[in-house]
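Issue: ligand-bound run for zinc ion - logging full I/O for the record.

Environment: standard queue, default settings, no custom constraints.

Inputs:
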Amino acid sequence: MSLTKTKGVIIRATNLREADRILEIYSDDLGKIRAVARGVRKIQSKLAGHLEPFTYVDLMLAKGRGDLPTITGAKALLHFSGIRKDVERMASASYLAELVSRLNPDEQASKRFPIILRDSFEALDTGHEPAQVVAYYEWNAVTAAGWQPELQHCVNCYQKLYPQGLSFSLAAGGVLCKNCIELDTEAITVSPEAIKLLRCYSTLSFEEVEGVMVGKDVRKETNQLVDHIVKYTLDRAPRSKAFLTHLEAM
Ligand SMILES: [Zn+2]
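Outputs:
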């Protein structure tokens, strides 16, 4: 039996047997891991309050041979309890957690994903517009996973982009100028303002992007484009996205 100490964000909980749960955790130093929380569905459980989904927690794990590690100690460091009080914030956090889980193989540490999770959950917890939080952090998650679309030059001819007749090609991985538009018949027509906003998603902090003066239509267009990019990157949309889209439409 070996003991490991780590800190991480709880990204998913699945019930196991009568009183246990399997938790998926994005650990700061171990990457995505799974561990068993025994007895946490019992009322008298001392660990339960520290192990709710989206919590950032200090953990002690005990691992025997073969099985998943068991959580023997847990202390919540950040509760983000505002997320669990609102269905849209909860759905947004679930979606971002599923996205990060899908983009990451098991036990491969990353410096950026723990920050993406904590910062996005903090923004959801502290009352920022959920749709903006989702768009900004899903873009940052996809690019952190290695998808770096070309936004400065035409991805085909490498000419500087002029603000007309532009389209975004998922297959080519970036913006096509008006001369190259026929290269990809499935390319999505895109406004120069949306491309500018995407560049901001890559280079500015979330708070700075919130302060960028841009029309509602451009935000919507950009968010839809990011949606296409996520679906393309993962082959299919995360299940939790459909529920979120349904909530946003209400
Ligand atoms: Zn071109």
